[in-house]
Amino acid sequence: MMKTGAVRVLGTMSGTSLDGVDAAEIVTDGVTIREFGESRYRAYWEAEREVLRSALGRWPGEPGVAEAAAVVEVAHLEVMAQFPDVALAGFHGQTLAHEPEARGTHQVGDGARIAEGLGVPVVWDFRSADVRMGGQGAPLAPAYHFALAKWMKARAPVAFLNLGGVGNLTWVDPRQPGAEVPGALLAFDTGPANAPLNDLMQTRCGQPFDEGGRLAARGEVSAEILERFAEHRYFFRVPPKSLDRNDFAALSTEVAELSDADAAATLAAAAAVGVVRGAEHFPTPVERVLVTGGGRKNPVMMAMIREGLGCTVDPVEAAGLDGDMLEAQAFGYLAVRVARGMPTTFPGTTGVGAAVGGGEISYPPGAR
Ligand SMILES: Nc1ncnc2c1ncn2[C@@H]1O[C@H](COP(=O)(O)OP(=O)(O)OP(=O)(O)O)[C@@H](O)[C@H]1O
Ligand SMILES: CC(=O)N[C@H]1[C@@H]2OC[C@@H](O2)[C@@H](O)[C@@H]1O[C@H](C)C(=O)O
């Protein structure tokens, strides 16, 4: 068990858009946020990304998984070694597959190897325990969103939206004393966010993403595809609920006949529809949605979300936060909670029956 009081911890996240590794320091006791620290980003090389892409959907022991794990470990060690002052690290790894109701959840990268390479204890495998206990194993950032709402001194319910490869939305009631209090949080994945758009850009234009939403801005949304999409059974499921990166692969097939610009506009609109349908599940309306993740840099997607929600929708920077690093900070925060035996998921965030502390701790040789 770690000493009490705030510690400087490093959190890392390699997200579903497969762009790279985010690493960020935070100083916390696992409840309140004392301060934010340095952060760095390490992009995957195209060859590395290809290794990861071809391992998507695979489970332990299947072809390509060991290679993907090696890519993830090397990239993380490279960036994590640049933070010599941390006492602990949180390592999410890379999700390859996620089927919480069937085969489980699969993140690659061995935390024990990271601990050995780094020389500090590493918390990892954050999702498995929650899934074993009947939870969705995702999203995990909500406990951190609760701490952020307190840090911001929010006085009324607020929502955090992450527009990564997949989208996820957290409704937070900051008037509650703690994240573990029933009714403090409701969280779920909204639907596809950037992943289908990235896949389209890669296949049709040889580019990793639609920079500034420029292609989508020139297109027209297919009302027919969008209306069908809005009636997807996922949106009728009561949250908590979570998604795998490719759960909406059919959407990519549906836009196949459209022009590049129309397909991009329709996929951006689909991301927005997922958010709007998701917000219908909020226990009470919110006045403000704070957006993190790369999608906040896509003005077309942001405008569509604003129009659909009809409330203030701002990048988290408007609240003094770093939207590129928020998920990485979350895994630092969660690492401290795990190291101190505190829960990381709750019935309102993953649907687990009772609060669970997910995560393994690996120590560097001789450090225990
Ligand atoms: N300037 C930009 N214009 C448009 N889109 C952008 C821009 N910058 C980033 N993005 C989009 O955001 C994506 C990266 O977002 P982010 O880093 O939040 O995803 P992630 O962490 O991999 O995903 P997840 O949160 O699902 O795990 C890029 O792949 C791209 O689609
Ligand atoms: C299984 C998995 O890796 N899920 C990711 C993914 O990316 C966004 C969304 O889907 C969210 O559920 C989660 O990541 C965020 C950081 C989370 O767990 O909070």
TrEMBL record:
Record keywords, A-Z: ATP-binding, Carbohydrate metabolism, Kinase, Nucleotide-binding, Transferase
What GO terms describe the biological role, i.e. biological process, of this protein? 1,6-anhydro-N-acetyl-beta-muramic acid catabolic process; amino sugar metabolic process; peptidoglycan turnover
InterPro entries for the chain: Anhydro_N_Ac-Mur_kinase (IPR005338), ATPase_NBD (IPR043129)
Enzyme Commission designation? 2.7.1.170
Q: Name one GO molecular function term.
A: phosphotransferase activity, alcohol group as acceptor
Enzyme class comes to transferase
- Recorded metabolic or biological pathway in which this protein acts: Amino-sugar metabolism; 1,6-anhydro-N-acetylmuramate degradation; Cell wall biogenesis; peptidoglycan recycling
Kindly give the SUPFAM superfamilies that the UniProt entry links to this protein: Actin-like ATPase domain
Is Secreted a UniProt keyword of this protein? no
Domain of life per record: Bacteria
Pfam families per the UniProt record, alphabetical: AnmK
Catalytic reactions of this protein:
1,6-anhydro-N-acetyl-beta-muramate + ATP + H2O = N-acetyl-D-muramate 6-phosphate + ADP + H(+)
Record-listed ATP binding positions: G15, T16, S17, L18, D19, G20, V21, D22
Output the HAMAP family linked to this UniProt entry.
AnhMurNAc_kinase
| UniProt family annotation | Belongs to the anhydro-N-acetylmuramic acid kinase family.
Q: Show the NCBIfam families listed in the entry.
A: PRK09585.1-5 (NF007141)
| Described purpose of this protein according to its UniProt entry | Catalyzes the specific phosphorylation of 1,6-anhydro-N-acetylmuramic acid (anhMurNAc) with the simultaneous cleavage of the 1,6-anhydro ring, generating MurNAc-6-P. Is required for the utilization of anhMurNAc either imported from the medium or derived from its own cell wall murein, and thus plays a role in cell wall recycling.
Q: What is this protein called?
A: Anhydro-N-acetylmuramic acid kinase
Species the sequence originates in? Tropicimonas isoalkanivorans
